[in-house]
Amino acid sequence: MNFTSQQESFIKNYLKKIINGEAAIFAGAGLSVGAGFVDWRGLLKDIAEEIELEVDKETDLISLTQFHVNEKGGRGRINQKIIDEFKEKAEASENHKILSRLPIRTYWTTNYDSLIEDALEEASKRVDIKHMVSQLPDTTYKRDAVVYKMHGDAKYPAQATITKDDYERYHRKNEAFVTALSSDLISKTFLFLGFSFTDPNLDYILSRVRLFLDGDTRPHYCIIKRVSKNDKNSSTKADFDYNTRRQQLLISDLRRFQIEAVLIDEYSDITELLQEIENRFKRNTIFISGSAADYSPHSESDSLEFIHSLTKKLIEEKYSVVNGFGLGVGSAVINGALEAIYNAPKKLNEEQLIMRPFPQKKTGRKELSELWHEYRERMIAFAGIAIFIFGNKVVPDTDNLAADPHATKLILADGVRKEFNIAINQGVIPIPIGVTGSVAQELWQSVEQNFDDYYSGLEDAKDPFLALNNSGTTLRQCIPLVIDIISTITKKKS
User: Fold this and answer.
1) Is 151 a residue of the active site?
2) Catalytic annotation, pick one of 68, 151, 220, 298
3) What is the pLDDT of residues 151-177, one digit of tens each?
4) pLDDT at position 362, please?
């Protein structure tokens, strides 16, 4: 997808907020519709018919639900409708899955379904769910994300905010939610997805924040599909012109709250925008694969200094590093990362170093080989770029055990090859440093032979890549070459 200048600006700016831990999501019904759930009109279609109205003719759906309560003497039928519509578990959409993989910790939604929390849990994140005021003071231990369901949960339909009575009482009954959302709107940058901005509660809170800060509110984003002649309600020229003008006025009004509307042509463009954000985010995380029982043709001291300095430079350049604590490599990765972080604690932080030491003994039902494969897949999933260095290990020499029970031999490390294959399957761009020898050199040769496949659209990376296996290239000289390649990759648009 070729992004417009506005879309490109949004991607860059929101990505910065994600990296800085300042990003939040506000999900409306449109996000759940893409996963198969009904929107508000679909939810209330039968409710409208029961009081002899047509939902498509209604513009005020909150009043519609109140009319039903008034006519029926209670909200029992509406509660049942919520149960019926959301009792089936829909599968999270690709948009939910992408968001769940990003390090976004704050989610707000007016939806009753559980798609957001389900997607986060599927991504192995610990989720703290808040759908009642009484839950706000308590915090789930070591939570990765918090989901505020400000209008309730489908499992508790009687508490859902849906009628005019509910909305009129909301600011008194749920004042803590109002305060919490106001605070997040001040301190975080929100992306509004699937939201029509017709909810009076959100309008009230946005206005409150704007007035409180005297207009100096934090910038936010929403994604809006541009009015098209193919839209059901824009089939005539008059309708198209009217809806286009109304959308322009809505976009202008959103600017009062510092909400920038990012326009798209098709709803599928939302997925492409989110995928681009994820791709660029992952390219800021570098997986270092390698093991070394022997550092030939280099000395051990030069090799450890190289690993240390390379990792230090990556951290200083604001990249994050993932490593499985490979033999002869892991300690130097840790030392290099920590030296950079401790030298500049105000600019860098320990979250830039992600260490995942491998389990060494079988203690459960799974064989170690199966556990290691799953472990590698999860570890590499953090990254968008993978560096491969050395790649050898020592094993018992079975051919000479009779003569020497302690006999060993040096072999190529199959684990590094496996990590390369997993990385390629996950779309990670590989940087094998051939001059380190062993498996890394073999991987360099493989990538070099099919360079255009691995580095599509990255022609500027070829010369520094070729130098990584040049006999005249020293280990120290590899560091700026690797940084040059990574810089070329991170600047590329998907």
Assistant:
1) yes
2) 151
3) 999 999 999 999 999 999 999 999 999
4) 61
In 5-136, alpha helices (H): 5-19, 29-33, 40-50, 61-72, 76-86, 94-101, 115-122
Whether the bond into 297 is cis, omega within 30 of 0: yes
Q: In the beta sheet, which residues pair with residue 262? A: 223
- Positions of the chain with pLDDT under 70: 215, 358-364, 401-402, 404, 493-494
What is the 8-class DSSP label of residue 383? -
Task: Please tell us whether the domain made up of 5-37+90-279 is placed in CATH 3.40.50.1220.
Answer: yes
| 283-491 carries CATH number 3.40.50.450 | yes
Residue 147, C-beta contacts closer than 8 angstroms, at least 6 positions apart:
107, 108, 109, 116, 117, 120, 127, 128, 129, 130
Q: What is the DSSP letter of 113?
A: S
pTM: 0.87
218-228 tens-digit pLDDT: 899 999 999 99
User: What is the domain partition of the chain in residue ranges?
Assistant: 5-37+90-279, 283-491
